[in-house]
Amino acid sequence: MTAEIPEHAKTEPIDPRQRPYDLPVLVAETGARDGWQAAAAVVERHWDAFASQSPRHLLAALKALPGEAFVNMPSLSVAANYLQHVVIDGEPRRFFHDGRLTPSPDPEASATLDTLILLTGKAAADRTAGRLEEGRRTVLEAKAVLDRIDSAGRSEYVTSLPHLRFQWGRTLDAADAAGAIAEYEEAYDLARLTGQPVIARRAAGHIAWSHADRGRLNDADLWLARAQAEPGANGRYDAILFLTSALLKQDRQDHTAEMELGRALGLPLGEQWAAALWVSALLAHGRPGASSVDARLERELDRHPEVHLGGADARYVKAARARLARVRPRLRQQVALLSTGTALDPLLDASHAYLEGRFADALAHSEEARNLTAAPRVEAPALLLASASHHALGHVPTAAELFGSANAIIRQERMFSAYSFIPARTLGLLAQHAGEPIHGRTHTAGEDATLPKLTKREQQILGLLASGLSTQQIAAELYISPNTLKSAMRDLYRKLGVNSRAAAVQRAKRAELSHAREH
Predict the structure, then answer these.
(1) Cα(433)–Cα(97) distance, integer angstroms
(2) What predicted TM-score, i.e. pTM, was given to this entire model?
(3) Which of 92, 205, 333, 486 would bridge with 128, disulfide CB 3.0–4.6 Å?
(4) If we measure between CA atoms, which residue out of 479, 433, 443 comes closest to residue 460?
């Protein structure tokens, strides 16, 4: 028996939160009465709202289209395939491109929305299958098709372009290729122009992440605020916003970073799995926290084999391992083996050489890293490592000058996390030689930063509290019940003299910094 559609729903947009099941019925009725083009127009009109709120019913609406719609618009097959992947489990690896849908190479036939959608689907498929260079080339091909369409022709596609350009940005972003932010910005502007808040929010969120990833924290602040201002909040896509917030707070030594990470981990991560592991590693406290993140990393690599990793995911995995290797030395060899082809490689080589006392090598690697990029996330620590290496070699004036340059970047972006690349004692000496302050101190002189004596179980709990895992997940990690964990947490808080998870994590981090200064 078919649901009866209210008369107003046949002319007004259907609300996916109220009666999503009306859409497939309306599409079928429209197709039978007015033909496939009118039915396809109904799908197009509801795409943005349903793709984010009710993809299952949107998929059902596509399947309700007359068969001739798929003959005349083969891109609908790509759209149905994409929605099928979203409905199954949101896993990018489920998305594939049917090679039979490759568009005609004829330039005149290519300049159509159908061709743009087909190329975009192929680029997304290449991206999620790990064929990053092929995906990048496909995006360039799609952009060339768009360039051949004049402004009058583009106006017919204006509601579709935000989605297409967002996917182009995602593909370039995944490949660590130039141009991703420009595509996101185009998607954001067009989405706002056409009243599509969901895609505007997603585009702004990815711009914010891209800036935060590179250490341009002030730009990230701006775009994160723009994303949060858009009314299209949706749990399916908002993990990137919480990851960005967590990274910004981590860089600025804000103890609420763990809460933001926890919010991200509670949402579908999809293609952000590697980025989430990197942020988790940055926030992991002590050996228990590092062990938990390392275990998650190994589970993810079972699903995303390391031999197929490339682009941004390879960079995030290497950065996560480098962070975890501080307390899990067995990971150091794996860090060295994974090459990303980015400035991260010589930066980590510089850090490793400095710690081994190979100061000339550290200088060479830090210079190589700075020659590859001027991104603050690389430039500031590379300058600090060069400063510390010159100091170790007795070149005090040069060390002081380089420290001043690094400190200017850190001050401007408030990226205090960069200081962690050199030992605290050396950091203090360099600041003294340069006559510069160390920004972002997390506690005042004279404050007792040491921890009371904790049991092994309490140490494990404290480490896991900083990992961003929920209490249920921490209980599962420790093989205890949630109630037992809550009781243990109350005892731990009492010992630490705090009354919240965030305060407990901050207390632990102060103790860790104090220990580093003494050594």
Answers:
(1) 59
(2) 0.74
(3) 92
(4) 479
Tokens of 128: 């999620």
State the maximum Cα–Cα separation within the chain, in Å, rounded to a whole number: 85
CA–CA separation, 429 vs 424, rounded Å? 9
Q: Which two tokens stand for residue 7?
A: 């008369």
Residue 347: which residues within 8 A CB-CB, separation 6 or more?
Answer: 365, 366, 369, 378, 381, 382, 385
Distance CA 80, CA 341 (A): 36
Q: What gap in Å lies between CA 43 and CA 208, rounded to an integer? A: 31
How many residues belong to the chain?
A: 519
Residue 510: predicted pLDDT = 63
- Which tokens go with 74? 């083969």
Quick one: tokens of 117? 């959608």
Q: What angle do CA 336, 340, 346 make, to 5 degrees?
A: 60
Has residue 104 got a pLDDT over 80? no
Would the pLDDT of 491 be above 60? yes
Question: Phi and psi dihedrals of 20, rounded to 5?
Answer: -65, -25
- Checking if the pLDDT of 176 tops 80, the result is yes
CB-count exposure of residue 497 (10 Å: 0-12, 13-18, 19+): exposed
| pLDDT score at 59 | 85
Over the chain, what is the mean pLDDT?
83
Q: Does 18 score more than 50 pLDDT? A: yes
The rounded distance, in Å, linking the Cα atoms of 71 and 364 is: 59
Q: What is the DSSP string of 296-347?
A: HHHHHHHHS-GGG--HHHHHHHHHHHHHHTTT-GGGHHHHHH---SSTHHHH
Which residue is it, tokens 């743009």?
A: 116
For 90, left (φ over 0), alpha (ψ -120 to 50), or beta? left
Structure tokens at 11: 């002319």
191 Cα distance to chain centroid: 21
d(CA 508, CA 227): 32
Q: Which of 139-153, 266-280, 339-353, 370-384 is least confident?
A: 139-153
The percent of residues above 70 in pLDDT, for the chain, comes to 84
Helix (H) or strand (E) holding 31: helix 22-34
Q: Which residue has the higher pLDDT, 332 or 295?
A: 295
Q: Which two tokens stand for residue 183?
A: 């595509």
Distance CA 264, CA 132 (A): 25
Letter for the amino acid at 384? L
